[in-house]
Amino acid sequence: MTIKTIIAGALASVFMIGAASAADLPSRKAPPLPPPPAPFSWDGFHIGVSGAYGGGDASYSSNIYSFGGAAPFFGLQTSNSFGTSGYLVGYQSGYNWQFANGVVVGYEDEFSYADIRANSNSFVGGSAARIQWFGTERLRFGYAFGRFLPYITGGLAYGKVRSSGSDFVNGALFMGNNQPVWQAGWVVGAGLEYAVFDNWSVKAEYQYTSLNGPNGASVGFPGAYRVYQGNHLDTHIARFGVNYNIKSIGALIGWDNLGL
Asked: Which keywords does UniProt give here (predicted)?
């Protein structure tokens, strides 16, 4: 074996050891990029509070029977209409389902204390009305533009209404102050909701609601009696609200944080 052969073998051994050591060094490749955030979804439960202003009109018909006064009569039929206005404050809750094409279908219920009453509590031949409590059970249909959700809505409306007021008819004084009654009707509307954060959204909504108005009877002085019924009690409602959006029942009651 010559000296040249020995030197060549030694150099080859050095290069092989260096290559093996380099293979053992940690990789210097850049870390993988994080996955893009999932697109916002309207799926899940929501609960919130809202305030509203309502105004509209009402109409009543009456049959009046008089046995006294300046000109006695029997079975006089009268009707009249008047405007209403007032406010509502309450809560809403519901659930949304969002499909892959962006369509959102939801269900929402709401319940509010209301003070919507006649602009004038007295007119001839009828009795004024006040909505004391108001609620709806509605379906919602919308299309999601990311965090924007325009929608239409409609369903059942109900309210607790009460008649009151005083009227002079042909010399007879009628006092109307009947017990409040629950009454059902219908509601349609449209709105826009925007998710300010993942779990918080704000909404503006218009509703048109229709109830019949209260029915009742009252005794007049002297010697008169009246029976009246509502023809309609319609209200335009502008509502603003805030919702807390929950993606699951587990998140609502804290199970998700426990890994259940």
From this structure: Cell outer membrane, Membrane, Signal
Task: For the chain, give every domain's residue range.
Answer: 52-258
Q: Each residue of 174-196: pLDDT tens digit? A: 776 677 889 999 999 999 999 99
The letter for the amino acid at 108 is E
Distance in angstroms (rounded) separating the CA atoms of residues 157 and 234? 11
Query: CA torsion angle for 118, 224, 62, 210 (degrees, to 10)?
Result: 40
DSSP assignment string, the chain: --HHHHHHHHHHHHHHHHHHHHHHSPP-PPPPPPPPPPPP---EEEEEEEEEEEEEEEEEEEEEEESSSSS-EEEEEEEEEEEEEEEEEEEEEEEEEE-TTSEEEEEEEEEEEEEEEESSS--TTS-EEEEEEEEEEEEEEEE-BTTEEEEEEEEEEEEEEEEEEEEEETTEEEEEEPPPEEEEEEEEEEEEEEESSSSEEEEEEEEEEEE----EEEEEETTEEEEEEEEEEEEEEEEEEEEEEES-HHHHHTHHHHT-
The Cα 227–Cα 64 span in angstroms is 7
- Strand 73-98 relative to strand 224-246: parallel, antiparallel, unpaired? unpaired
- As its CATH architecture, domain 52-258 has Beta Barrel (2.40)
Take residue 237 and report the two structure tokens written for it. 């409602």
The pTM of the full predicted model, rounded to 2 decimals, is 0.77
